[in-house]
Amino acid sequence: MTAAGSPGSANGRHEAATATADQRAGLVLGTEREASTPLGFWVYVDPDRYLQLDDVVHVQTPLPDGQLVDLYGVVDEVRAHQEGVSFTSDVALAVEGVLPVQSVVSAHVAVTRVEPEIYVPPLPGLPVAIATGAVRETALFADRMKRQLAFGLSRTLEPVIGNLDFLDGTSGAHVSISGISGVATKTSYATFLLYSLFEGKALGARAANAKAVIFNVKGEDLLFLDQPSTELDDGERAKYERLGLPARPFASVAFFAPVRRGPHALPETGTRQEGVTGFFWTLREFCERGYLRYLFADADPELSQLTYVVDSVAAQLAKAVADPGHPRGPNVLIGGRLRRNFDELINAIEEQTDPDKGGDWAGHGNSAATLGTIRAFMRRLRAAGQHVGHLLRGDEFEHPDEHRVDLARKQVTVVDLHRLHDRAQRFVVGVLLSNLMEEREAQGGADRPPPVFIVVDELNKYAPRDGHSPIKDVLLDIAERGRSLGLILIGAQQTASEVEPRVVSNSAFRVVGRLDAAEAQRSEYRFLTPQARERARLLKQGWMIMYQPELPVPLLLQFPRPAWATRPSEVEATADAFARFDR
After folding, report:
1. By C-alpha distance, which of 280, 276, 177 is closest to 545?
2. pLDDT attached to residue 15
3. 3-class SS shares of the chain: helix, strand, coil, % to 5
4. N or C end of the chain: smaller count of CB under 10 Å?
């Protein structure tokens, strides 16, 4: 995918000159209104040719000493006008043949690269060529990207390349994807990026140890990543071929879903049950690792004393199970009684926090929380228990280790949460992300640890712009320190303006699908040119605008329809292969 020679070499110069002769689109304009500059110029488009938005072009301009400077750029504006008219109504006279006029098309080019870096404007009258092949790759810096990743296809079905060094943590990390729900195909694009990473050759030797985890919060779309789609036509297969990717489902996927309520460890998914592992945590894990705070993930510690009680009770729970006399196993001994389920654990916490019953887990003396705060804490805890209690088990199930989310099983892990209440979704996401951070930190300062790509949809819910929460703290930690630990965040949200700014600003790649007109004007989209902001309102499904660090302008791209099934109707299987369990 890289150019055969650099622009300064003999081969690169010859190839660029040939492309100019064969692919001429027009001439550099030189009117006062449309004068050229080193950073942008206008092109008179030949009558038998056309330029459209996003075309990549190339022009060579001579210096007084005969040296040639190559200017590359992307068309960001095209306009047509009539020469020889003065008034609005003259267009009718021109059509009738009364006025002698000529229709002219001109295009503006935003310069992306200058080689050698001598910033002079292209001279009027010089031929401008459509850049293709190696010349196009030079224009978009692909020749400098030693590790390339296919992010999609251009309008002309040429690969749009990104520098993997800025994605996998080598020089940068993280991706932010924004767009209107149901139209922008954010989750589909995030999944395609993972496919390009794992099923292509971009990761090289690192692919064997690289992992990904996807939190599925919307429907069953991601529960069939390992199944081929019956709706992939030849045109879409050809797009995969252009990208150098096989048109097939993911080769290595594990599926996890919360266990159902009741005595069975069956996963609560929906249509698909086969190949899905039900997960839960033991009461002992809940107490040992301080998971209590993730039941209060939407609380704002600056506005309430509630956090003091949460921290105090979490510390007491950890202390109780750490006691040398505490029995082994998944149950918890508190107040002299063995607690075997979450309801019993809640009752124990209430006993130990109620000052009227001698409880002191909410503090002592002047440092104790008020009775109103303690009661508010218990109300929220019981409300959380209604949605999360079935994920915290005692000794109902044997072999709890078989029901943990284990990223080591497969290359890609899907954690299905779409049937959980919002509070339970927050709990699961918070616990799993914090576990990932703790595991990577415990490994020490390993040099470039294998990357783990984390796909989080509805990022604005977990890392909102305002307020504080334990989940937000973890995500912010991943955004700011995750690169050094090999944790790469791929966040998707409807509106980047509602996400914690430091999470978005740490994303090396920023991608937008269809945007709301008002949202597109927010400062979070400053990386878009004015023209790109306008175009983001018109994007169709499957089309995105992508910005990356090495290019001064964002690029329009499309990505192929998933080669894997996204709903049960697309799966080539018998009716009972994914039979619903109604037990």
Report:
1. 177
2. 45
3. 35, 25, 40
4. C
- Residue 250: name the closest of 487, 429, 414, 402 by CA: 414
Q: Which two tokens stand for residue 81?
A: 């006008």
Q: Which residue carries 């690289």 as its tokens?
A: 210
Contact 196, 245 (CB under 8 A): yes
Tokens standing for residue 22: 């064969």
Q: Determine the pLDDT at residue 17.
A: 44
| pLDDT > 50? residue 9 | no
pLDDT digits (tens, 9 = 90+) for 294-315: 999 875 655 566 888 999 999 9
Query: Which amino acid belongs to residue 573?
Result: A
Task: Convert the pLDDT of each residue in 287-299 to its tens digit.
Answer: 999 999 999 987 5
Contact 16, 124 (CB under 8 A): no
Tell me how far apart the alpha carbons of residues 139 and 133 are, in angstroms, rounded to a whole number: 10
**What would be the CATH architecture of the domain defined by 148-279+401-569?**
3-Layer(aba) Sandwich (3.40)
CA distance 363 to 369: 6
pLDDT of residue 191: 96
Least confident of 458-472, 523-537, 562-576: 562-576
The angle subtended at Cα 412 by Cα 409 and Cα 415, nearest 5°, is 90
* Burial letters 547-564, b for 16+ CB under 10 A, else e: bbbbbbbbbbbbbbbbbb
